[in-house]
From TrEMBL:
KW NADP (keyword) present: no
The species this protein was found in: Gelidibacter pelagius
InterPro entries: Poly_Biosynth_Transport
Hydrolase in keyword set: no
Membrane topology field: Multi-pass membrane protein
PANTHER family according to UniProt: O-ANTIGEN TRANSPORTER-RELATED (PTHR30250:SF11), PST FAMILY PREDICTED COLANIC ACID TRANSPORTER (PTHR30250)
Protein name per the record: Oligosaccharide flippase family protein
Length: 454
C-alpha cells in the first residue's frame, strides 16, 4: 500500500520527502480510521442494548472521567514529542534516549503515587451520588472506578510510546491503535451480549483493560525492534532532561487541563442538571458530527512533528504552503456539515432507531462546534509544533474558567436544555478563533514579539 501511495505522489510531482511521508500516513490513516469509525458506530447500539440507556449514560460519564485523569501525565507526552523531534532532527540519539528514559520513569512514579492516593480516596466517595444514579450501583461503581483508574495509570506509562512514533514522523500510529482497540471492543461486546447478563462492572473493566493490553504489546514490539537503541533505562534518568521536557511540557499540561474542563465536563454537567439518560442524545449527536472532526484530524495531526522539524530547519516556505493546503481542505467542512444536517434525522433512525431522540437544534449546535473546532486546529497544530504556546495557554485558561458557569447558565437559566451546553462551549472557543490565526501569521512572517513568541 505504501509503495502505491509513493508512486502516485511521484506522478503528481510531489517532491518534498516530508510532504510525501505526511500524505502516505494520511492515506494509511484514512483506511484504519474508516474501520475504527465503522466499529465505533456499530458499538453504540450494541452497548445500549447490553447496558440499557441509564447504564450507558453512566459509562459515558465514566469515560469523561478517564479523559479528566489524562492531565496527570503533567504534559510530559507532548513535551517529549517536541524535544524528541528536535533531538532526532539534530542527530543526537543519546539525548533522545535520555529524554525517553526521563519521561517513562517520571510518569511511572507519578502513576504509582496517584493510584495509591486514589485507592485511599475511593473508599470515601459515593460514586452513585456523583453520577446521579441509583444507590444500588454504588458497590459496583466503587470497584469499577478503582479498576478504571488503575488501568489508566498503567496507560499513562505505556501510552508514551505513541509520542516516540509521532516524533519519528510515523503519523498514523495513533489511528492504528484506535482501530485495533475499536475492533477488539466490538468483538468483545458482541461476545458479552451473547454470553453474559447486563453488567456495567464487567463491561467497564474489559474496556478499561483493552487499550492497556494493546499499548503494552506495542511497547514490547517497538523497543525490541524499531526503537531498540532508544529503549528507556533508569540509569539515563536526568533532572536536566526532565527540565527540558517540562519546559514546554508544563504549559501543555495546563492546556490539557483546560481542554478537559472545556470538552470533557459536558457529560457530567448534563447528568447533574438533568439525568444520565440525557447524556445519550448529546453523545449520539457528538459522535455523528465527530466523523468530520476525525477526518480532518487525520489530515492535520501529522503536521505537528513535521512543523517542529521544519521550524528547527527554518523551512518557512514549506510551512506556509502546508498551512494554505490545509485551509483549502477545510473549505469542504461547511459544505459537508450542511449535508450531514439534512441527513441527521434519517441517520439517527438507522443507527439507534427510536431508542434515542436527538433534537434538530442539538445537531445544529454540534455542527457549528465542529466547524469552529476544525478551523482552530489548523493553527493550533502549527503553534504546538513550534512550542510557542503562551498565548494558547492564556486563552485555554480563560475558556476553562467561563465554560462551566456559562454551560449551566445557558442550559438552566436560559432554559436552552442540553443544547445550551454545547453552545456555551462554542462561545468559550471564540477567542481562540481570533488569536490563534493571528499568532501564526506573526510567527511565520517573523513579526512575533513578546508573548507572541513564547
Amino acid at each position: 500500500m505504501k509503495e502505491h501511495i509513493l508512486k502516485i505522489l511521484n506522478t503528481l510531482g510531489v517532491k518534498s520527502a516530508r510532504t510525501k511521508n505526511i500524505v502516505k500516513h494520511i492515506s494509511i490513516s484514512f483506511f484504519y480510521k474508516a474501520g475504527a469509525v465503522l466499529a465505533n458506530f456499530l458499538l453504540v447500539p450494541l452497548t445500549i442494548n447490553f447496558l440499557d440507556t441509564e447504564n450507558y449514560g453512566v459509562w459515558l460519564i465514566i469515560s469523561s472521567f478517564i479523559a479528566w485523569f489524562s492531565f496527570f501525565d503533567i504534559g510530559l507526552g507532548n513535551g517529549l514529542r517536541n524535544k524528541l523531534t528536535e533531538a532526532k532532527t539534530n542527530g543526537d540519539l543519546k539525548l533522545a534516549r535520555g529524554y525517553i528514559s526521563s519521561a517513562y520513569y517520571t510518569i511511572a512514579g507519578v502513576s504509582l503515587f496517584m493510584f495509591c492516593v486514589f485507592v485511599f480516596l475511593n473508599y470515601f466517595i459515593d460514586w452513585a451520588s456523583v453520577f446521579n444514579t441509583s444507590e444500588a450501583f454504588n458497590t459496583d461503581l466503587n470497584l469499577l472506578m478503582l479498576l478504571v483508574f488503575g488501568f489508566f495509570c498503567i496507560q499513562l506509562v505505556v501510552g508514551l510510546v505513541t509520542n516516540i512514533y509521532l516524533a519519528d514522523q510515523s503519523h498514523s500510529i495513533q489511528v492504528k491503535i484506535h482501530f485495533s482497540t475499536q475492533v477488539v471492543s466490538l468483538f468483545t461486546i458482541w461476545i458479552l451480549t451473547e454470553t453474559s447478563h447486563s453488567s456495567l462492572l464487567i463491561f467497564g473493566a474489559i474496556f478499561a483493560a483493552l487499550p492497556v493490553i494493546i499499548l503494552l504489546a506495542l511497547n514490547l514490539l517497538a523497543f525490541s525492534n524499531k526503537f531498540k537503541e532508544l529503549k528507556p533505562s533508569l540509569s539515563l534518568w536526568s533532572k536536566s532532561h526532565l527540565k527540558d521536557i517540562m519546559g514546554v511540557g508544563f504549559d501543555f499540561f495546563i492546556i490539557q487541563i483546560a481542554g478537559i474542563v472545556i470538552f470533557s465536563t459536558d457529560n457530567f454537567i448534563i447528568s447533574k442538571l438533568f439525568s444520565p439518560e440525557e447524556v445519550v442524545p448529546y453523545n449520539i449527536a457528538f459522535k455523528y458530527f465527530s466523523i468530520l472532526t476525525i477526518v480532518f484530524s487525520i489530515v492535520v495531526a501529522p503536521y505537528w512533528s513535521s512543523f517542529t522539524e521544519a521550524y528547527v530547519k527554518k523551512e518557512y516556505e514549506w510551512i506556509k504552503v502546508s498551512v494554505n493546503n490545509i485551509m483549502r481542505v477545510w473549505l469542504l467542512i461547511p459544505i459537508v456539515v450542511v449535508i450531514m444536517l439534512l441527513l441527521s434525522d434519517w441517520f439517527y433512525n438507522i443507527w439507534v432507531g427510536d431508542k434515542v431522540l436527538v433534537p434538530f437544534m442539538l445537531s445544529v449546535s454540534m455542527a457549528v462546534f465542529v466547524m469552529s473546532f476544525t478551523f482552530n486546529n489548523i493553527f493550533v497544530f502549527f503553534i504546538n509544533g513550534t512550542g510557542k504556546i503562551k498565548v494558547q495557554l492564556i486563552v485555554s485558561i480563560f475558556m476553562a474558567i467561563i465554560n462551566i458557569p456559562l454551560s449551566i447558565f445557558m442550559a438552566k437559566s436560559l432554559n436552552m436544555g442540553v443544547k445550551g451546553v454545547i453552545i456555551a462551549t462554542i462561545l468559550s472557543y471564540l477567542p481562540g478563533l481570533i488569536l490563534m490565526p493571528l499568532q501564526y501569521n506573526k510567527i511565520i512572517n517573523n513579526r512575533a514579539r513578546g508573548i507572541w513568541n513564547k
